Fold each of these.
Amino acid sequence: MSSRYDLDRRELLACAAAFGPAVLAGSSLADDRPQRSESHSPRQFPMKKSINLWALPYPDKMSLIDCLRLCHDAGFDAVEMNYDLESDVSVKASEADLEEIGRTARDIGIEISGLCSFLFWPYPLTSNDPERRGKGRELSLKMIDAAAALGARNLLVVPGAVYIPWNPEPEPVPNDVCWQRATEAIEAAIPHAEAAGVSLNMENIFANAFLMSPEEINRFVDQFDSEAVGIHFDTGNIMQFQFPEHWIGQCGRRIRNVHLKEYSKQAGTDFTLESFRPLLDGTTDWPSVLTAFDEVGYDGYLTFECFPPFPHCPEALVYQTSDSLDRMLGQV
């Protein structure tokens, strides 16, 4: 029997709109919402978990060994390393040094999913400056050797840029010239990569005005007709104006490695790194993205990329990401 203090349906909905759905607790309206079965388990995906070391405070606050142990303890299958001018994985490291790093990682129980580098930006393969362009080619060969020494089979390559917002040249590179220079640079590197057993994976970038559609990046890769050239697909890099699930089916088995990067479209058209978020804290349709990867037969590494690391308790981001990946992949 109802009392004069009971709210009718219209009044309950008005209160919920004003104060949130908790108002419906205990009312018959709460039962109108679909309930998730306790026995329901999400779809399971076969991909492997990886994390780029940019998500950790290396080398400022943690050693490379500490990073590897933390990532292993957090449940990652692999880490992606970054090649630079100064660190343990750099132009200063010898082949023996890099081989030892690879052995140490495997002894800890973690693989190296690939090699990445920010050096493609100060030394772009398509620069108008012949000296910078030549330095980029030289470094790309060193990166191939470094990946092989580490025991990694994937090298992320930024093949070129019409324009680099954070490091602009005096004049942008015309699109046709960019394509020609990038093609020449990759062609020159293919024999070295084939001999080393390393795949040169072209990354889709969100702000370089080059390879901005799946058709374009496919055509660029296919022209080489080489197993040593593929795609490094970054889910977040196209989220500003596009959707990764639309690219994956078209790129298909050309995809050799993946950056699983979260993005929030709430940033609108602003160009900011703040748009890249911890996993599940953005607007990416992850079920559709992972299903698309599964449907093209991709079962390799999904590497979380985020920078900078958390300023406090940086290990929290590592454990949080591992847990998010477990849930996304249906492994919990």
Amino acid sequence: MLTPRSLFPLLAAAAFLLSAYANAGSGANTQSASPARSNTTAGNPITGEGLPNPAPKVTRNWGELPEGRKWGSSAGVDIDPKDGHIWAYERCGAGTFGAGAPVTCDSNPVDPIFKFDRRTGKVLANFGKGIMQTPHGIHVDRDGNVWIADFAGNEAGTKGHQVHKFTPKGEKVMSLGIAGKPGNADGQFNQPNDVVVGPDGSIYVSDGHDGQGMTTTKAIAEGIASGATARISKFSPDGKFIKSWGRLGVRHGEFRTPHAIMFDAKGRLWVADRGNHRLEIFDQEGKYLESRYMFGRISGFFIKDNLIYAIDSESGPLNHVGWRNGVRIGPVDEDRITAFVPPFEREDRVYQGTAGEGVAVDRVLRAERLLAGLCELERGHQLRREQDQRSRDAGERQDSLGASDQRREPAHDSALVTGVTRAPEVAEERAFGGRREVI
């Protein structure tokens, strides 16, 4: 959101799923998004121009809701690690959220959590009624348990500012934080954004949403004085508080809205520090390791097969000049963008478009073809760099003999790029949330 507790409409509320299997009878309408250029491997990571689009087809209104239900806003989607089906939530029909929102999961107590069949979009599970106020982050652990961060509190002070754990069948088995009571004490939350379970079963929660609107040193100091949070809290597998790290600020290890978190294959914790326009990487004890800056003003991200898929729903002419919304894709070990899924266009989103807040990458069927194509692109870039270096070395030797530089572009590079641009033909975009214009 552009301001704390913003009441923007659903333009940034949809969650996105990059999927590589065909639509199996969902009845959704499809349309083609603008294809990426296929004649270049270089591109502009800020605008996305010239970068390949691995998900050029859009399926609108994917995912069936129970009769009488309408999609509200959403900011979360995840993949079940056991069966590949899709978990998401919707905010009980709420099109806005935060203080004063006319509809919440407290005022409209319907089941907000959904499991959808990955082929048909039909509901496989639906639960969570009467427990939360405003679901925000979602995580499915390796045992299939579903974790939800409940971002805001209700007027009665009896719900919200908690993290809940549910079994795959919907039984609530754990709650962290104090219901309806925001705060910065150990084990307490003040607008929890996201939750993830670590490799050893420890629980990590990113806490504090208001920092992104603090754009001056004075505002940050006032936020700290008021008790606003911007931190990661760690709990034992049974829910006992262990430690927290981070505060409002711009230094490494400080945050202005740690909006999403996830572990990579090396066991490192990645944090989308949205207000500071970066990804921060830590070890499991909170030691700062490194950062990434090329992925925009990140609302959500997903890591799979050494690639990062980061979705930017908030960059705009007033807060991140020139940067387009959309999904930026790049290698885990480099701060570099190799592909871009563009946003949808809206007249009231001048120069930026509109994209969702959550992203997940399907790991079944033909997804490997899409990801293999992106890996080929990476390999092509590396081969090209090596070839260019050999050519420069050879050119220097020839120059010393009075010869001209005969460098050439490697012939295999264009073939690899062609392979990448063909791979998306099997891809589909699916979306969840208020607009459900998906990837």
Amino acid sequence: MIRILHDNDAPARGGQTSEAEALIARKAVRLEEAERIVAPILADVRARGDAALLEYARKFDGFEGSTVRIPVRGSLSPEIERAVEVAAANIREYARTQVPAETFVEYPDGRRLGQIVRPIDAMGAYVPAGRYPLPSTLLMTVIPAQVAGVATTCVACPNPSPEIMGIAQWLGVTHLFRMGGAQAIAALAYGTETVPKVDRIVGPGNIYVAAAKKLIAGETGIDFIAGPTEIVIIAAEGNPRWLAADLLAQAEHDVDASAILLTTSRRLAEAVAAEVERQLATLPTEGVARPSIEENGAIIVVDTLDRAVEISNDLAPEHLALHDAALLAKIRHAGAVFLGPSSTEAAGDYASGPNHVLPTSGAARQRGGLSAADFVKVIAVQELTPAGLARLTPSIAALARAEGLEAHARSAEIRQEARQDARQDARQGARQEARQDG
């Protein structure tokens, strides 16, 4: 049975830890344990390349082949292909809005400033295939990279399903590898004889994948360190069946998933709790969803919706569902927001367009979800006219000398000396011409 708590029973004020915060905080401790386990695997793959990669693939993934690279070949049933076409079109359409524009501005003081946008050369997408294969993650990771213009798309999956194989071909993925876990992250980060080194690794995974991404982040770009999934729903009123379904949709992902409802209505809290039990009785994934709901789920009754927003902002949840769209202006931290009772989080998981690869465990305080912008570099460009540099030289020289960097100051001043010499030569030349004419 999902717990019903009152905010007074689980305060988040004055440095105390709320029940909801405690549910999410537990994951950080487990990640530290996982880092100690995966660090030797990363080092081994870095040192021995394919030899180490194959050993770990056989040990952890049951791999029996001679190479982890597999052909990008597969097919889709008509029903799945139609679904993929709809989802991919929406993901691609939304991703196009996220790519920064190239711009240039000419200022009257002699500065021409702008930015160019260039894609990274290669990306790696980790596509989980443990309890549930996730072909939707293939769409969510590869399409934004393609929109950004990334030429080399590498996909790592420990056990690709027929749908994953078919979508990889449908998308035109350039490299597909049957590998998973920390060894896959190491291969993509460092490169091996078979696996190209990539510039950025994205996509969710288990706790060992998350720990590996954290450890290689200093050398290879990552999206973020994703932990178990989570949702916070804020609703003063609503359909208990819909709310229970949304909580269970999150809970069935993982026994460590968190599903939390914040409401001002005790009556709604009790109705949703009862409905969760009714729906669990017929849910095929009850074996996962029930322990998730019982260990990590909660319905918290709050005095006001403002208090619910405060708790949500403290949690910075991966998914935030707001049944009252007027609350959006008060939201500061969330991976993705779902407005209104019709905007079920499952739509975002698959087909509405925004990305489902989102920050968890409070990381939404620092950033939002995966974006086409993650696969490009915004490169500043500046051009100064001689007069423009002349106007800046006193400031450049003063600041450079304040930092003890004399060569910096001289590199600007020497151009002014040359400019003054050129002016003087021009004046002398003009005087000589005038004398000759006279």
